[in-house]
Amino acid sequence: MAEAADELSTPLGQNTVGRTRRFRLPFTAMQALAVLLGLVLVGFAGVALFNDNPLGGEPMARVTLRNPPPAATDDKHAPAGQTAEPAVKSVAKAPAAASDAKTVTIIDGSSGKRQDVVIGAGDPREKADVDSPPVATTGIDPRLLEKSRYGMIPMVADGLKPFTVYAAEADRAKAARMPVVAIVVAGLGVGAAKTTDAIMKLPPAVTLAFTPYGADPGKLAERARTQRHEILLQIPMEPFDYPDNDPGPQTLLTTLSSEQNLDRLYWHLSRLQGYAGIANFMGARFVATDPVMQPIVREAAKRGLSFFDDGSTPRSVAQTLSAGQSLPFAKADFAIDAVPTSAEIDRALVKLETIAKERGTAVGVASALPVSIERLGAWLKTLDSKGIMLVPLTTAMLKSKSG
């Protein structure tokens, strides 16, 4: 019909041509896109206005906590007509994970200005699992601990002193009759591998000295005590070339007041527990300066500790000040591995034998270098045959004092 209508309306003499009519949308593509974006905006505004979400879309995680199943009742042993009460079991709670990081208050020597610095956080991969048991403090007497603003520090209580309580066992009657040698391996606590070598490869009578630094010096010191080593705490002190040669944070300085140095001392004392005494860590200038050493020696005596001088300077006043405070004291005759080669270490050990036989007591200090540990281990096995006794440092101190 449509085709016939076209032929009627076409002028005579002209042929009609068939036309194809295309379907067209009532709007353009841009109009459709604008409408779509408008709907999205309207929807977003509706969610923001009418959805009650106090977190404002902040990501959150949901954890399902299930109550433990009730304990089985023992109906067989319940009286007739009664239902047995479920057994109550105590569940031990895991201790809260403590951060390895500690805040250190650094006091400016000239102005007294305080600055808090976080140190000792360590590698997060080294942190203990929260489900692992806490490290036991074997043999630590809580009566000998006093709370400071940095943590627990040693003190004298009930007539007991850390020097006597934490001294390693030794046959002191035998030591009084024969030449003795004490060996102190120092600089431990920083570097778990070398510290562990010293703890495990050297006999218990070797005294181990720990610095206050490292991720967890207390844990390594506790391991040493578990292996029956006597331990010391090294206190960083100012050397002659400070600050070019810097022992570390909270170093005791000759430019600080006695109150400032004592405050730093308390920080160091709180870093680990169970030590029989303190020792200088570097500090050639500090230990040679009487006014700044006096309060430190007096505080060590007050807290029932001893003092070990590593012999780094002949000008040290530590021995004289210790005698004035009746503080147990020892000074290293020399560093065994000042030249860290096998030949030189062996030569130094022979010299230590000679001093022990001539004077009755000899004290050597060494670092935890692999060559030092290896040569010490071999030499210590020969002492019995030479008529020399290896003793902890506290035993050597007591023998020197009685002599």
UniProtKB/TrEMBL annotation:
<dbReference type="GO" id="GO:0005975">
    <property type="term" value="P:carbohydrate metabolic process"/>
</dbReference>
<keyword id="KW-0472">Membrane</keyword>
<dbReference type="InterPro" id="IPR011330">
    <property type="entry name" value="Glyco_hydro/deAcase_b/a-brl"/>
</dbReference>
<dbReference type="InterPro" id="IPR006837">
    <property type="entry name" value="Divergent_DAC"/>
</dbReference>
<protein>
    <submittedName>
        <fullName>Divergent polysaccharide deacetylase family protein</fullName>
    </submittedName>
</protein>
<feature type="transmembrane region" description="Helical">
    <location>
        <begin position="29"/>
        <end position="50"/>
    </location>
</feature>
<keyword id="KW-0812">Transmembrane</keyword>
<feature type="region of interest" description="Disordered">
    <location>
        <begin position="65"/>
        <end position="84"/>
    </location>
</feature>
<keyword id="KW-1133">Transmembrane helix</keyword>
<dbReference type="Pfam" id="PF04748">
    <property type="entry name" value="Polysacc_deac_2"/>
</dbReference>
